Amino acid sequence: MLTGSELLYEKTKMTQFDLEENPFPSVYFDVWPYCDMDCNICYNAEAMANSVKKDKFTIDPRKGFIPKVTVDYFEDVVSRLGQNYKLDIAEHIPVNSTRGNNPQEIVLIGGEPTIHPNFLDFLKIIYKYGHNAYVSTNGKRIANDLDFCYKIKETVGSNKNKLRFHIDISGGLDREINKQIHNEDSLDFKLRALENLEKVGLGKVSLSCIVIRNFNEHVMKDMVDIAESHKKIVREIDYKAQGLIGNYHGNEKPYKTNDWLRMIRKEKIATPEEIGTVFLSGQMHDECGGKHCCYKFKMKRGRSTIIMSWVDFLGCDYCWIRGQVATNKENPKVEYMFEHVEDNNTFGQAGQEGTYGKGRFEFKEQPIHTAITKRGLAKIDRHMV
Predict the structure, then answer these.
(1) Which CATH class is domain 8-359?
(2) φ and ψ at 293, to 5 degrees?
(3) Given a cut of 60, is residue 218 above it in pLDDT?
(4) Helices (H) and strands (E) in the chain — how many of each?
């Protein structure tokens, strides 16, 4: 049995793990192939397009479909997930060994998980087996159905502190940028989703912003303003680099960690003192093996503390934090998240080999050219090194 995640791949040389031997503190679970939005930055675009177009149920992720997960199947997987690590799930930092193994954090994704007809059942199952739930949602149903929010609150009951929401607002408060990113004017319902969660008392929200070079950098400050306007529920501002899978916006190379750190200092989004409170980065944790793709620190805003985080997807090939269920009815496994996503996104393309988990790659010096097909894989001019 694995007892920790220190240099996980280097230690195990394994890319997949049995459910019972799961080493990841956060496990992503695709539960629904459909979405009621059509975003230009969707990381799993091809997998969803295949599923929606062909309307098939399949349990083989290698075929490029996200399955329609049933309640029985979901419970079978969740009940078998091991918790073979010692980590503070809220902050992703090691805990005192006397605390023992923490609950698993199960991240519901898809598609849009809240429109799954059994979404509330999934939450019940997660809590039944002592885990934490993290719902990655576009916020549309939460914004438009207050009764649904109250049903969520009723379902989680005393487990309210074991529930987190992730809502992307990559357009910030800029209505036109929101339209270009989400293919609709999403600003009002995104903010209304936060208002509804606040109204019913469902806290612990992470706001997400994918930072696109020469496009939406100015909205980074908006994220702090939004967080301060909803300080009762927003716990984290999660900035991300644009990934090289799924729908890709523009033709500029993604930002890397040091780029982002320079930006937030230059724009006075965070002070050097706040940045100095970092508790997760490649320099801070042996588990990262020197990779500098995640960065987390704490910001004080009045009496509130907000975690500010960054993820550079170019360096996350073997991320020790994030696993994903590789859905196979006979023998489901857990594998590195980006390995799984790449398999879905490159399915059916002759000569294409996944890059995440297969090796390190760099951008060429000349500009990157992307050929963006709606709901297709972004073809990036890159070379392996």
Answers:
(1) alpha beta
(2) -105, -15
(3) yes
(4) 12, 17
